Amino acid sequence: xxxxxxxxxxxxxxxxxxxxxxxxxxxxxxxxxxxxxxxxxxxxxxxxxxxxxxxxxxxxxxxxxxxxxxxxxxxxxxxxxxxxxxxxxxxxxxxxxxxxxxxxxxxxxxxxxxxxxxxxxxxxxxxxxxxxxxxxxxxxxxxxxxxxxxxxxxxxxxxxxxxxxxxxxxxxxxxxxxxxxxxxxxxxxxxxxxxxxxxxxxxxxxxxxxxxxxxxxxxxxxxxxxxxxxxxxxxxxxxxxxxxxxxxxxxxxxxxxxxxxxxxxxxxxxxxxxxxxxxxxxxxxxxxxxxxxxxxxxxxxxxxxxxxxxxxxxxxxxxxxxxxxxxxxxxxxxxxxxxxxxxxxxxxxxxxxxxxxxxxxxxxxxxxxxxxxxxxxxxxxxxxxxxxxxxxxxxxxxxxxxxxxxxxxxxxxxxxxxxxxxxxxxxxxxxxxxxxxxxxxxxxxxxxxxxxxxxxxxxxxxxxxxxxxxxxxxxxxxxxxxxxxxxxxxxxxxxxxxxxxxxxxxxxxxxxxxxxxxxxxxxxxxxxxxxxxxxxxxxxx
Length: 541
Ligand code: SF4
What we know:
Layout: H1 5-13, E1 26-32, H2 36-39, H3 43-53, E2 58-64, E3 86-90, H4 97-105, E4 122-126, H5 128-132, E5 143-145, H6 149-163, H7 168-176, E6 181-182, E7 192-193, E8 220-223, E9 225-226, H8 237-240, E10 245-246, H9 249-259, E11 265-269, H10 279-288, E12 292-295, H11 305-313, E13 318-324, H12 328-333, H13 340-352, E14 357-364, H14 371-389, E15 394-401, H15 418-432, E16 438-441, H16 444-454, H17 460-465, H18 472-481, H19 486-490, E17 505-506, H20 511-523
Parallel strand pairs: 1-2, 1-3, 3-4, 4-5, 7-17, 8-11, 11-12, 13-14, 14-15, 15-16
Antiparallel strand pairs: 5-6, 9-10
Helix pairs in contact: 6-7, 9-10, 13-14, 14-15
The chain binds iron/sulfur cluster.
């Protein structure tokens, strides 16, 4: 086997790569529809790679989208996509849908599932976007995993092992009979129930491969908790990964022992790790084991001083917090659960620990936002800057437009127009950059595309299939060719009685609960965080 130069370099710098013999095994290509650099920091992708390869009769190899239209090959053995029995996509971001299409088009495998036959690989997908609303991609896939891979893959693999050589229709019928497996072509209208792991201690969710060539390079990633208790009304993680679950201290310690064989650095991941009831003790134990720890982001409340101290002692320089909105009014509306006072206290604690770089995440275009709310972002940021300057810390802001997501209470709401978003972003930049505050922002144009795809329906697959390169002009042209209007998808409030494209799926959260949450948002009422198993309000537990 001869690998190209980049592949050879990548493989030589990796630790933990799994090489298996193809003989007698079902070959599965696990595809991340973005670059190696981004994909290798995705813990979900790494987990599925480890899980699939834990089966003796399966060989799983990775494929990444790296731009260019040439045929894609697996990293481990450079086999082309056509050689695999199964192509399994792991999809985390709507804007990667374009790369999904490009990857399939770069092969000789027909793009649409209906055009494939028994000789083609089975094309499947999972990941957060698929769990929320797979409809814009549904015509490309034979089947979709609605839920957490650890909960669905074991039964799926059993069916695949028996039926992959047989008739495709029979295989699809067998797959469709399992919970959490959505076969768009055979769907009978009964919502497919999202599946999740009851006890996350039953499965390790850690880095399998370490490489310096990725965003979180050289860090052994460990999932501390899954889901989130807080239920911010715009947030996918807060709804589609319910209920909130956390790992036991002992299992985390055992994972850390494995991680420390690779190096000193451990990355603690989870949407709300601060809610782990024994986080202080975990950090103490890891520090005693000699680990340097880092975290993806922290909630403003609760924010533990012991954890901040552990991070500072580990040499971590940057802390990320997400106030999301400048005004308390909007933070009530989105159910953020933090006051101005909480933010100031958090900033003081961070500065006191000597953490010198603070990243703040805000959204613009939140429901009912006015220019005054944007002024409040400016006032809050400047007040925080004055506070942290005393400790010689630096502040950067990341601004993202609000994009309504399927499965959340804000799923019915429109996006703010691109003109208003651009105006508000310019206001923030003009007011804050001259004060030495660096601002990073998502593209307004691409955020609108994200909005179309996040609440989109099956008709969008035709537009995706007609893309000629990934550009806004090509997207507009493709929509026009399919007589589709972006405003219909993004700038429209969807009535409660309209059938939603993603109603083929049942996330477990009752529709009535989402409606009530939206009603409370409009009244500015907050909902208390889930009380773990005792709550039972949304229907999941
Ligand atoms: S705190 Fe809010 S924004 Fe963060 S993960 Fe939980 S629900 Fe989402």
